[in-house]
Each structure stands twice: as structure tokens, then as C-alpha cells.
Write a structure and sequence with these properties.
little secondary structure, 4 helices, five-stranded parallel beta sheet, 5% helix, Pectate Lyase C-like, 14-stranded parallel beta sheet
């Protein structure tokens, strides 16, 4: 009982405090904890008397007019109110168990904070009702005698007879709940099938094992609600707000999602395939283990979304904005991304068979572990994309922008990159066997070290500043290909026909070109230090400023070649043919050219010092002002050679070069100690 202090302390009564009952509270709580009959209920309602806290059990109040009745905090069990009028009635904080509200007329009914168990309210008109914080659930009905209860206690649940337990029912099917407020309500096992909840507020509500089949849920506020193991099939959710809502194991088949707000909504183990309409926004959407196959969400904003282990087969995401999103373990076969923006997104371990990507934006995307076998991505822009480790056999990337993309450790066997833009693209350790790079628009600053180039087609491509170190290029097709400032350290071109090709300013140090054809090739400024060029046919080659230090040139054919200002120091060119070559201003210091042919060569101003030219042929060669210091020309032929100003061995320089300083003096020893022999002394 609520009491109010109204008294003032009366000094004349020794300071005692007087208390008075609040008349309004006394009237309101007059029936508190009283068991009322149906007649008493009707009588008190007619007098306008509140029934706050009253106890109503097994009463039949069907088809009565109880408008405005105050049953707040009351306890109703087994009460029948079917067909009654309860407009504006107040059940706030009440406890309703097995109550029948079938077809009641109860607009603006208040059930705020009420606890409702096994309610039947099929066809009820509850528009504008207040169910804030209410709890609606169903429980099993137990129909057991005393003896049966004792048997269950002794023998366990196996002693239950068939029909002893009956499922309870909490039903609001076909109810009119337009504009009702269920904020924070807890509904378990409630049947809302066919109900009209248009404009209702269910923000923060907990809906577990509920039925909303064919319900009207247009413009409903479901933000922050939690819906689990429920059926919303065929429901109309048009325009509803599901922001921050959580849906777990929900059937949405045939539901209408037109204009819904799915911002930061969490969806798990749900079936959305078969839904109609497209959301207004799904930014921050989180979906796991769900079916979205066949949906058309073209143009829906989905930035920063996460889709994990979902089936998106045939889904239309054309023109969607999916920036900074993550799709992991998803099946995207036959999905459409026409014009979609996936900038900064990650597609991990996805199956992407027959996906359509025309004009999609895929800058800085990640594709770890994806299956891209046979996927056609022609004309797509992937600048900065991460394709490391993908399986992309027969992948089609024709005309794609792959600037700064990473294909390291990927499988691109038989892939088609024709006409692509490759700028700072990485193919480290990539399997490119059979791939085509024909007519690539730009191939610059790319890394291919460790890649498999078996059967690769590089025809009609200009390759610049790229790294091919250590690769086997013997099966690469390079018809009409040009290389500029590329690195081919320790590469193999053995036996290849490279005639007419361009390798300007390239690093081929340590490369194997044995038996290759380089006739008419352009090698200006390239470095062949330590390279194997034995038996190479390179007549007419243009190699001004080339470096061939310590190169192996045995048997090479360089007739009519232009190697001006090249460095062949330490090279071995025994049996080589330099007939009519331009070798002016070249360096041959310490090189070997035994039996080599230099007939009609131009060697003006060249340095042949310390060269082994035994049995070489210099007929008609020009060596104007050449340095022939310590040249070993035993058996060489000089007929008709022009040697004006050539410098032969300089005796003073020779003496200086061969000078060996005496050993340093030993220590002063006593006369009786024998001086040890110096190293090299004759015995």
C-alpha cells in the first residue's frame, strides 16, 4: 500500500508525526490482491473503479465493454475476454497467463511491462497499443494428476503419458497492431502471422521463435532488435528500419525488403533468397552463413560490409558501392558486379566462376585464396589489387589495369593478359606457364623473379625496367618483343631465336645464351658480365657501350656487329668471328681471343693490352692508336692491318709490372744461429 506523508509535526502533541492515506491511492489500490468474480469486475468497471493489482482467475468476460479499465499490476489467469471492447485499457505491469483476447477491440491498449504467457489474441484490434518492455512467451501446459506427478518425480520424464504435455500458444495472428509500441518487448514463441504492425515500434525488442508469416511490417522500427529462429516468410518489410538489428536463423523467403534500412544489420544463418525488392541502404551489413543467391540488389550502398561463408550465386550487385568491404568464403558464381565499386575491399577464398565485372572499380582489392579459374575480368581496373596466392588458371584479364597489383605465388597458367596495363606489378614465384602477354599496353617496373615462364607469349610487347632474374626463358615466345633496362641476371635463353630483338641497357650478367640467335639485335648499353654467349650467332648486332667483362664468347659470330665503346676485359672469345665489326674504343684487357677473326675490323683507339691473340686474324683491320701493350700475337696474321700510332709493349711499363720487391730483411741473429731459408730459396 502506498502512503503519503501529509502531516506536520504538532508541538502540542509532543512532536508526534501524523500520517494520512492519500485518497487517490486508496481508491486506486482498493482492489489490490482481491480475487474478483466476473460480476464484481463488471460492477466495479461500471462504477469507474480501478482494478489495480486485482486477481482474476478463470473468468468469462467475453464480449463485454471494458473500455478504459485499469488492470495495471493485476494477475489474470485463464480469463476469457474474446470479442470484448478494451479501448484504452491499462494492463501495464500485469501478469497475463492463458488469457484469451481473440478479436478484442483494444485500440491504445497498454501492456507496458506486462508479462504475458500463452496469450490468444487472434484477430485482435490493438492499433496504437503500448507494449514497451512487455514480455510475451508461450509455455507448455501440464495436465497431470497428483499420482502422475509423483510417478514423474520417481521415474523421470519417461513416466509421462501421451498428451500430458501440451504446447502453449501465444498468438496475435491477424491482429491489428498498427502503430503499436513494443520497444524492448520480449516475445518468445509468439504467432504474429498475418498481423498488421505497420508503423509499429519494436526497437530493441527480442523476438525468439516467432511467426510473422505474411505479416505487414511496413515502416516498422526494428532498430537494435534481436530476432532469432523466427519465420518472416512472405512478410512485407517495406521501408522498415533494421539498423543494428540482429537476425539469426530467420526465414525471409518471399519477404519484401523494398526500401528497408540494413545499416550495420547482423544476419546469420538466414535465407534471403526469394526475397523481393532491394534495401535502401546496407552500409556496414554483416552477413554470415546465409543464402542471398539470385537476389537483385543493384545500386544498393553496401560500403564497409562483411559477408562470410554466404551463397551469392547469381546475385546482381551491379552499380553497388562495396568499398572497404570483406567477402570471405563466399560462392559468387555467375554474380554480376557491372559498374560496382569495390575499392579497398577483400575477397578471400571466394568461388568466382563466370562472374561479370564490366567497368567495375577494383582498386586496391585483395583476393587471397580465391578460385578465379576461367573468370573473365576483361577491361576491369585493379590498380593496387592483391591477387597473391590466387588460383587463376585460364583467367582472362585482357585490357585490365593491373598497376601495382600483386600476383605473387599465384597460379595463372594459360591466363590471358593481352593488352593489360602492367605498371609495378608483381609476379614473384607466380606460375605463368602458357600465359599470354601479347600486345600488353604497358609492362614497366614488374617483378617476375621465381616465376614459371614455360610457354609464355610476350609477343609484340615493350617491357621496361622489369626483373626476370634467374628465370628459364627458353620456351618464351618473344616475337617483336623489346626489353629496355630490364634485369635478366642468370636467366637462360639457350638456343632461342632473339634475332632483331631489343635488349637495350639490360642486365644479362651470368645469363645463358649459348647457341642463341641474336642477329640484328639491339643490345646497346647492356651488361653481359660473365654471360655464356658461346656459339651465338649475332652478326649485325648493335651493342654500342655493352659490357662483356669475363663473358664466354667462344665461337660467337659477331660479323659486322657494332660494339663500339664496349668492355670485353677478361672475356674469352677463342675462335670468335668479328669480321668487319666496329670495335673502336673497346677494352680487351686480359681477354682471350686465340684463333679469333678480326679481319676488316675497326679497332681504333682500343685497349688490347695483355690480350691473348695467338693465331688471331687481323688482316685489313684498323688499330689506329690502339694499345697493344703485352699483346700475345704469336702466330697472328697482320697482313694489311693499319697500325699507325699503335703502341706496342712499353719496356719500362713491362718492367714495372713485372717488378717484385725483394723479401724484407730478416732479424739480426747471433753468429751461432742458422738463418732459416726464405720461401722460394733454392736448396
Amino acid at each position: 500500500m502506498v502512503e503519503a506523508e501529509v502531516g506536520n509535526t504538532n508541538p502540542g502533541e509532543g512532536g508526534s508525526r501524523s500520517w494520512e492515506r492519500d485518497p487517490e491511492d486508496e481508491a486506486r489500490f482498493r482492489n489490490f490482491s482481491r480475487r474478483l468474480t466476473a460480476e464484481e469486475v463488471v460492477e466495479r468497471v461500471e462504477r469507474g473503479e480501478p482494478l489495480t493489482g486485482a486477481i482474476l482467475e478463470n473468468l468469462d468476460l467475453s464480449r463485454m465493454t471494458l473500455d478504459g479499465v485499469d488492470l495495471s499490476m493485476a494477475s489474470l489467469r485463464g480469463v476469457r475476454l474474446a470479442g470484448s471492447s478494451l479501448a484504452g485499457a491499462n494492463f501495464a505491469g500485469a501478469m497475463l497467463t492463458d488469457v484469451d483476447l481473440t478479436e478484442v477491440q483494444a485500440p491504445h491498449l497498454s501492456l507496458a511491462g506486462a508479462m504475458v504467457v500463452n496469450l490468444t489474441a487472434d484477430g485482435a484490434m490493438l492499433s496504437g497499443a503500448n507494449l514497451v518492455g512487455a514480455s510475451l512467451e508461450r509455455e507448455w501446459n501440464v495436465a497431470l494428476s497428483r499420482e502422475e506427478l509423483e510417478a514423474v518425480a520417481e521415474q523421470g520424464i519417461s513416466a509421462l503419458k501421451e498428451g500430458a504435455l501440451e504446447p502453449g500458444r501465444c498468438a496475435l495472428s491477424n491482429a491489428d497492431l498498427r502503430g503499436a509500441i513494443l520497444t524492448g518487448a520480449k516475445c518468445s514463441g509468439v504467432d504474429f502471422s498475418g498481423a498488421n504492425l505497420e508503423g509499429a515500434g519494436l526497437s530493441g525488442a527480442h523476438l525468439d521463435d516467432c511467426l510473422f508469416r505474411s505479416s505487414r511490417l511496413r515502416d516498422v522500427d526494428l532498430s537494435y532488435a534481436r530476432i532469432t529462429v523466427s519465420d518472416l516468410s512472405g512478410s512485407d518489410l517495406g521501408g522498415s528500419d533494421l539498423a543494428e538489428c540482429s537476425l539469426d536463423t530467420v526465414d525471409l523467403d518471399r519477404a519484401d525488403l523494398s526500401g528497408t534500412g540494413l545499416e550495420r544489420t547482423k544476419i546469420s544463418a538466414c535465407r534471403l533468397s526469394g526475397t523481393t525488392g532491394r534495401p535502401a541502404s546496407a552500409v556496414g551489413l554483416q552477413v554470415a552463413a546465409s543464402h542471398l543467391d539470385g537476389l537483385s540488389w543493384a545500386g544498393v550502398p553496401m560500403d564497409r560490409s562483411t559477408l562470410q561463408d554466404c551463397d551469392l550465386t547469381g546475385m546482381d550487385l551491379s552499380a553497388c558501392s562495396l568499398t572497404e568491404s570483406r567477402l570471405e568464403g563466399c560462392v559468387l558464381n555467375q554474380a554480376r558486379f557491372d559498374g560496382a565499386d569495390l575499392t579497398g575491399s577483400v575477397l578471400a577464398r571466394c568461388d568466382l566462376q563466370e562472374v561479370k565485372w564490366p567497368e567495375a572499380r577494383l582498386e586496391e582489392t585483395g583476393w587471397p585464396g580465391c578460385n578465379l579459374q576461367g573468370v573473365d575480368m576483361s577491361g576491369t581496373a585493379f590498380p593496387g589489387a592483391d591477387f597473391s596466392g590466387v588460383f587463376g588458371e585460364a583467367l582472362i584479364l585482357r585490357g585490365c589495369d593491373l598497376s601495382e597489383a600483386d600476383f605473387s605465388n599465384a597460379v595463372l597458367r594459360s591466363a590471358d593478359l593481352g593488352g593489360a596495363l602492367l605498371d609495378s606489378t608483381s609476379f614473384l614465384e607466380c606460375d605463368l606457364a602458357g600465359a599470354s602477354f601479347r600486345n600488353v599496353g604497358r609492362f614497366d617496373f614488374c617483378e617476375l623473379s621465381g616465376a614459371d615462364l614455360e610457354g609464355v607469349d610476350l609477343s609484340h610487347t615493350l617491357v621496361e625496367r622489369s626483373d626476370f632474374d634467374g628465370l628459364d626463358c627458353t620456351t618464351v615466345t618473344m616475337t617483336g618483343t623489346s626489353f629496355r633496362a630490364c634485369s635478366f641476371i642468370s636467366c637462360s635463353f639457350e638456343g632461342l631465336d632473339l634475332s632483331g630483338m631489343e635488349f637495350t641497357e639490360c642486365d644479362l650478367s651470368g645469363a645463358n645464351l649459348r647457341g642463341a640467335k641474336l642477329e640484328g639485335a639491339h643490345l646497346q648499353g647492356s651488361d653481359f658480365t660473365g654471360a655464356d654467349l658461346r656459339e651465338v650467332r649475332a652478326s649485325g648486332v648493335r651493342g654500342v657501350g655493352a659490357t662483356l667483362v669475363d663473358a664466354h664468347l667462344n665461337g660467337i659470330d659477331l660479323r659486322s656487329a657494332d660494339l663500339r665503346m664496349s668492355d670485353l676485359s677478361g672475356a674469352v672469345a677463342d675462335g670468335a668471328d668479328f669480321t668487319s665489326a666496329r670495335l673502336d674504343r673497346t677494352r680487351w684487357v686480359g681477354s682471350g681471343a686465340r684463333g679469333a677473326r678480326f679481319a676488316n675490323c675497326l679497332l681504333d683507339y682500343s685497349d688490347l693490352s695483355k690480350m691473348d691473340a695467338r693465331n688471331a686474324d687481323f688482316r685489313q683491320a684498323s688499330l689506329l692508336q690502339a694499345n697493344l701493350h703485352r699483346l700475345d700475337d704469336d702466330g697472328a696474321v697482320w697482313e694489311g692491318a693499319r697500325l699507325r700510332g699503335a703502341r706496342r709493349t712499353d719496356p719500362d711499363l713491362l718492367a714495372a709490372e713485372e717488378y717484385r720487391p725483394p723479401p724484407p730483411p730478416g732479424p739480426v741473429l747471433p753468429p751461432d744461429v742458422e738463418r732459416p731459408s726464405a720461401q722460394g730459396d733454392q736448396p
